[in-house]
Structure of Putative membrane protein:
Amino acid sequence: MPLRLSPKVLLIDPVRMLPSLLLPLVGVLFVGGFSPRSFLWAALGIAGTVVFAVVRWATFSYQIAGDRLEIKRSLISRSVRTIPLERIRGVDVSTPPMHRLLGLAVLKLDTGASGGSEQEGELDGVTLAEAERLKAVLLRARAQERRQPVTDAPPQPQENERVIMRVPRTWLLYGPLSGAYLLTPFALAGGAIGLAFQWGDQLGFGRDAAWDAGQWLWDHPYLLLIAVVLLVVAMPVVGGVMYAVFNWNFTLRERDGYLVAERGLINRRSVSLESRRVRGYEIADALAERWAGVVRVWAIVTGLGDSQARGQLLPDVPRAVAHQVTGAAIGPFNAELRKHPPVARNRRLFRAIAPWAALAALALTAALLTAATAWWVLAVVALILAGIGVPLGLDRYKSLGHGYDGIRLSVRSGSLRRSQAVFERRAVVGWRIRQTWFQRRAGVMTLVAGVGAGEGGYSAVDVSETQAVAFPAEVTPDWLAPFVRP
């Protein structure tokens, strides 16, 4: 029979609609001069929001009917979304703060039909028990590929569960190394400044006052410098806190043919990935992470939407642990990466040094002609950056590589963010060779392995012409046999 969301969600919907109503409500109060009539109209607006939430809840239902999940909406026009259980490739259960207080959860289904970050089905406001029941029923039905109809009966307890990795809380200290959360203090400061200028009049101190405060701070550069230094000092602290909030108690499990990743402190999230659709993994690290010997890991999964968020297998962990976990959960890569030709090193050195060297030459010329101090400063800075470009270019070349161990392929590139993709040979659906004008002059090219998973293709950058032909012939010899003369 059709089921509804928990009535408790009616306490959440009006609160979520409040930000979009805040400006109209404030406008009504100001236009009405805060008269009783203006408060009455504001109250009617809030009441209308509550009525809308109730009607939307009453006209929404879902049920598992046979071998499909049906989601029905009939607020204005009636719509029925049917999701075959065999198409469900992942289930995402999350508990945002307000949901957690009320014992509710958000359940999202990923079928790969959208091809992007949007899930095809979402149940926002089921109880935690119902979310776990639905998750078990849907994943069990998908894993066993049942031919008979699936009922709403509670699933039998499953024993096939193995904990692959529990990330120790002490490893959360690696969080600021990734750099993803380091700009949080500046983002908060920018948001506060934007709020002051946009809502200054409504907040009571006026937009002009906010502008005058900014002008006064600009006229006192030492205070501005102190503020910037404080924000920089706060970067690792705030970034580490944000990282811990999102990755608290990160646990990776294998359960009934699925890889299940759970994480989060305020919003606890559980993501299930069907193991048989996992084609490989991607290991990434930034410069600071590389110096500390830690990496992050994502799964390469066919038909997975929002793979950067939903496909995460591990947060920052030691490299040896990452290889151990990926080897146990997906499979190891047992081969050395092959080096790219020396001309690839020259190209990286040129791109890392030449722009700054050219800027330094222009600045020196201007400094000699004008004797302006600013040009001398710019020339020195450009020369320093050109010098830094030498180790950066060499590191970028050192990071290049590709390989094949008979089962899996691997390609690696990047320096500021180095990424190594490892994927199965059966995932390769085609090859593509790209060559820019500069690559053609240098005698190198980019070989792209088309993969029906993850990003859709992974590139071996600046390989030689011999490697561009030999590597596909080694991996997929049958594909090239018709084009090779005996």
About this structure: The chain has 15 helices and 19 strands. Residues 172-247 form one domain.
